[in-house]
Design a protein that fits this description.
This protein is mainly beta and 563 residues long. The chain contains three helices and 39 strands. The longest helix has 9 residues, at 60-68.
Length: 563
């Protein structure tokens, strides 16, 4: 064995700067990461569910209702993350009698799933080629939040040898890692004051060469392997998760602990490594895409690109997802790229959150940041908010947010915000019951006249939206704000005015599950084309990983009136 080496691992980017209200964040970093599946998926036409092993996906209401009914359930839940029944893509209802000037008709153009264990711009450390690696590789820093991956390229694993990528402190007294042994045992282990504890194991004999990945996404630690061929269509095959057992020993959401942990890898007894890489976790799929807009609802455009927040799926449900910001060239949507990561500090912990929105408010030179977090049934799911003058469209940010004081019954999710005629208007989903089944519906609210976006939010004296519809999105038609939602039962995208009066529905295909209707006119389009960017609920994997690894991005286009 070689000697221990500390801080010999080259760093790819500058340190993260943490935000209180404002932050400059981390500068973009560029690297290469295999395993991105971002091509159109012709196979989807014959298998719209994208499901393996003949299994049907768990429905959103079934999943949430079942978990909410069990207060002792180990799964941690949050909103805006629908799950689908096996339904074929079909056309939505026609938009007749809406009173709006132009009615776009959408057809699907691209379906793709971006998969990266380390997002390309967020590669923190890369050893490059290794010739005589030491027994212990320790990077100078670790992740800014508990959403990270360490990937070891293993070229030899002789009898008796082992490899263990993960996170550990400089003195080695605290660690969490994935250990692969030549005997065919893979384990997740935690090192703490009480010694080393193995929290999960699986029998899996791996033959070199292969790539072994340690990942942490919120509460879940997982092991993945890549052998050079996409086995089962998966660029990274999950082998094992801890099912939340690590958090009982080391809660990586605690900043003091996480700040001591560094990216690391240990190897022994002749195990040979070719390369090590580490950085913030990417995604197994995307969901809840929400267009970044200005206060009046227009798409925020920079360098000819539009931007979206999206829930970046981790190795489980909503607590394992985090908020990413993605840039898209409307002419090449399949090449969309993650450009920022947003994490949130509150109650002494770090969270990824999801299902939110970014609103650029040029009048105050700020971004309004909305997110959703929490668990079902307790303490419930709630909306959170903050503002920042930082450029949250690039780099890594830790933002201090707080609960949004808006009226709701049991829980709330899918916030959408727009300023119209000098007043801030809200839409969000109000959860009214957990049992005997989950019940929810969209509501309209408004901030106090003349006040800021979060001042004196009160429900508007208008009817609530249809039962069990969600995915609130604002879009102007004929200059007037319209609330768009997703109705899974009818497979349509209903449209409402500010009095919650029906204004027809968006004429567009309805992918698997509960796709959210993110509709907008293409910026700079001479013919006035429109785009719809949404997601389906096909899971990345359903044998090792729990529900929540959806979905694929689905983009649609409608020819404008100028064609």
């Amino acid at each position: 064995m070689g000697q221990d080496v500390h801080a010999t691992w080259p760093r790819q980017g500058a340190p993260t700067q943490k935000d209180s209200q404002d932050s400059e964040g981390r500068q973009d970093r560029r690297g290469r990461q295999d395993g991105r599946d971002s091509q159109d998926s012709p196979g989807d036409k014959g298998d719209p569910g994208g499901h393996r092993h003949g299994r049907r996906p768990l429905g959103r209401r079934q999943a949430l209702s079942g978990l909410a009914a069990s207060a002792g359930a180990a799964a941690l839940l949050a909103p805006g993350v629908p799950a689908g029944a096996a339904a074929r893509i079909g056309a939505g209802s026609a938009t007749s009698g809406s009173g709006d000037a132009y009615e776009p008709h959408f057809t699907t153009t691209h379906t793709f799933r971006p998969v990266d264990l380390i997002a390309p711009r967020f590669l923190d450390h890369d050893t490059g080629p290794l010739h005589h690696p030491p027994a212990r590789l320790l990077a100078p820093t670790g992740p800014a939040a508990p959403f990270a991956a360490v990937i070891a390229d293993v070229v030899a694993l002789p009898p008796g040898a082992g490899v263990a990528p993960g996170l550990e402190t400089a003195d080695g007294r605290e660690a969490v890692r994935v250990r692969c042994h030549s005997t065919g045992t893979l384990a997740i282990e935690v090192v703490g004051p009480g010694g080393t504890t193995t929290v999960a194991t699986v029998r899996e004999r791996l033959s070199a060469p292969f790539r072994l990945a340690f990942t942490v996404t919120g509460h879940t630690v997982a092991a993945f392997v890549s052998t050079g061929s996409a086995r089962g269509g998966l660029p990274w095959r999950p082998l094992l998760t801890d099912k939340g057992a690590v958090a009982a020993l080391l809660d990586l959401r605690r900043p003091a602990l996480l700040g001591r942990l560094r990216y690391s890898c240990r190897s022994d007894r002749g195990a040979a490594l070719r390369r090590l890489r580490a950085g913030h976790f990417g995604q197994l799929g995307l969901r809840d895409l929400h267009l970044v807009r200005d206060a009046g609802g227009r798409p925020y455009v920079r360098g000819g690109k539009v931007f979206f927040t999206a829930g970046c799926a981790g190795a489980g449900f909503s607590q394992e997802a985090h908020t990413g910001v993605w840039a898209m060239d409307p002419a090449r949507p399949e090449s969309m790229e993650q450009v920022a990561k947003l994490f949130f500090a509150r109650d002494g912990l770090l969270f990824g959150d999801h299902g939110g929105q970014l609103v650029h408010d040029p009048a105050r030179d700020r971004f309004i940041v909305l997110t959703v977090g929490g668990n079902l049934p307790t303490p419930g799911v709630a909306m959170y908010h903050t503002t920042t003058s930082a450029d949250v469209l690039r780099g890594v940010h830790i933002l201090h947010d707080r609960p949004l004081e808006a009226p709701f019954t049991r829980s709330a999710w899918d916030p959408a915000l727009i300023r119209y005629e000098g007043r801030w208007h809200w839409a969000y989903v109000d959860v009214t019951d957990y049992e005997p089944e989950l019940s929810f519906r969209p509501v309209l609210a408004a901030a106090a006249p003349g006040g800021d976006y979060a001042d004196g939010i009160a429900l508007r004296r208008v009817p609530k939206g249809p039962l069990d519809t969600e995915g609130c999105r604002w879009q102007r038609f004929g200059g007037r704000p319209r609330l768009l939602v997703s109705d899974r039962a009818r497979k349509t995208y209903p449209r409402f005015d500010l009095s919650m009066r029906p204004r027809g529905a968006i004429d567009a295909p309805y992918p698997l599950g509960t796709p959210f209707p993110q509709v907008f006119p293409e910026p700079g389009s001479r013919s006035g084309d429109w785009l719809l960017v949404t997601f389906d609920e096909s899971m990345y994997e359903e044998t090792v990983l729990s529900y929540g690894t959806h979905g694929k991005v689905v983009t649609m286009r409608a020819p404008g009136p100028g064609r």
